[in-house]
Specification:
- This protein has 7 helices and 6 strands.
- The chain is of the alpha+beta class and about 190 residues long.
- The longest helix has 19 residues.
- It is globular and about 70 Å long.
Length: about 190
């Protein structure tokens, strides 16, 4: 029976594709989770609106090969995001290995200029698109790529706030917990 997508259980799903792939791992009150620990999780991630849009309706196999390639891309992004403005050589090499699996081409269509993507195999497309999107974020505002300020949280986000001061993956989750902890500490001292 082929894997079927279920409801996406992740707490943060509205980030750009490169960060969204990183956020397939998270921690909550019941422990650590990894959406990509099964083919069903892969099917769920591929079916999410953000990913579907980024893949332009391409038919992606939900198989071990696609999963393996996504995990390689996630590991490369995980290395690179620790220091987005100055990634270490290993992170650069790992991300470039993923990016080498595809390319963007340009062409003239009857309605004007266009682009297309070629990848070594369809199973590389999600991984390549996530790596490509991360490069886009680096080119735009690398200082806005951040980890949540909660030391117990492993989620990341791209800060699109006007003044660039977002600290939490979610104000409703981590931000609220931090406020509650500060309030409790103040009351305890008083």
């Amino acid at each position: 029976m082929p894997p079927t997508p279920g409801a996406d259980p992740r707490p943060l799903t509205d980030e750009p594709l490169g960060i969204d792939l990183l956020n397939t791992r998270w921690i909550d009150s019941s422990g650590r989770h990894d959406l990509l620990d099964s083919l069903d999780g892969l099917a769920t991630w591929l079916a999410s609106p953000l990913v579907s849009q980024a893949l332009d309706g391409a038919s992606i196999p939900v198989d071990d090969e696609t999963l393996e390639r996504l995990l390689l891309a996630r590991a490369a992004l995980d290395e690179a995001i620790t220091s987005p403005q100055r990634p270490h050589p290993g992170a650069i090499e790992a991300l470039n290995d993923v990016l080498a699996r595809g390319r963007t081409g340009h062409l003239l269509r009857p309605d004007g200029p266009g682009t297309f993507v070629e990848v070594d195999a369809p199973s590389w497309l999600p991984a390549w698109r996530a790596a490509e999107d991360y490069l886009r974020l680096l080119g735009e505002r690398p200082e806005r790529i951040r980890a949540c300020s909660n030391p117990e949280c492993i989620l990341h986000f791209y800060d699109v706030s006007k003044n660039g001061t977002r600290r939490w993956c979610s104000m409703a989750g981590c931000g609220n917990r931090a406020k509650a902890q500060r309030h409790y500490a103040r009351r305890k001292r008083a």
